[in-house]
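RESIDUES AND SHAPES:
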Amino acid sequence: MATKKVAKVGIKKQKGYLYFVDKHGDISCAKMARGSAKGGSAKKVAKVGVKKQAGYLYFIDKHGDISAAKMVRGGTKKKAKRRSSARKTKKRK
């Protein structure tokens, strides 16, 4: 998986928090739910304003910077159902 660094921010991550790039391109964090303890609402950590491209996954890397990786679109394709001509003739009668 080839990744590229989009923005150097250098934030320090705290344990028990989930860090992510929000829809505005900024870094936000939310307290993770553990057992019966509920999680918290998201709060902005750093204003970056990264413009997101379709087909890329944006994440916070181990250095606290925003990186992007091309999304892998794989898997097996579903086969289209074929209708037999015998079925069509039964419906017409």
About this structure: The chain is about 10% helix and 30% strand.
